[in-house]
Specification:
By secondary structure, this protein is mostly helical. The chain has one domain. 83% of the residues lie in helices and 0% in strands. The chain is built from nine helices and no strands. Helix 1 runs antiparallel to helix 6, helix 1 runs parallel beside helix 7 and helix 3 runs antiparallel to helix 7. It is globular and about 55 Å long.
């Protein structure tokens, strides 16, 4: 069951993080120009890990304190997952591509500031990491919840460092709408399966 929690966290974390957005565009750009790649990837990963920990730890504990709240949150999480699955399939129907502008060289401080801004000023990051991941994590307790959060954080680590340091190799793929169609279909399927799992748990839990 502990490994299952880890894999669920990894799957949900991956589905949430692998999407076209300013944060991924920034990581890709820095990887392509080979400037401050480690710093950008590290800031993105640590920010995600912090928010995941807050969601899984703080909100997860608060939600588990009341069985009614826990079940309500589980059903809300199921609805959110189904909505995200619908969004992913909608994007797949009209695929776009992850593109970046060449821009000019920036100092380490400017790049870190930009990274922090596109991370913490994006309201979706709180919905994804704190509320949604925190709500799903609430179904687990103790070590299993820690494993779930670790899986979600591992998804961020693998994605950001993989995208940043593999930018030159990945760029020709992420610039193709067909690639993102396949990715969004995969994300939609993952979200749908996780919604079924969470909904079944909410339905059968006492």
């Amino acid at each position: 069951m502990k490994l299952l929690a880890l894999w669920e966290g990894l799957a949900l974390g991956s589905a949430l993080i692998i999407a076209i957005g300013p944060q991924n565009a920034l990581v890709l750009r820095q990887g392509l120009v080979r400037q401050h790649v480690f710093a950008v990837c590290t800031v993105c990963f640590l920010a995600d890990a912090l928010l995941i920990a807050l969601g899984a730890g703080g909100l997860g504990t608060a939600f588990r304190a009341d069985p009614l709240i826990l079940k309500t949150v589980a059903w809300a999480g199921t609805a959110f997952l189904l909505f995200f699955a619908f969004q992913a399939f909608s994007r797949a129907a009209h695929p776009q591509a992850l593109t970046v502008e060449a821009g000019t060289a920036k100092s380490l401080g400017a790049v870190i500031s930009t990274t922090l801004a596109v991370t913490f000023l994006n309201p979706h990051v709180y919905l994804d990491t704190v509320l949604l991941l925190g709500g799903v994590a609430a179904r687990f307790d103790g070590v299993e919840r820690a494993m779930f959060a670790s899986g979600a954080a591992l998804a961020s680590l693998l994605w950001f460092y993989g995208l940043g340091y593999g930018a030159a190799r990945w760029s020709r793929f992420v610039s193709r709408p067909q690639t993102w169609r396949a990715i969004d279909i995969g994300i939609g399927l993952i979200m749908g399966l996780l919604a079924l799992s969470l909904g079944y748990w909410a339905w059968t839990s006492s």
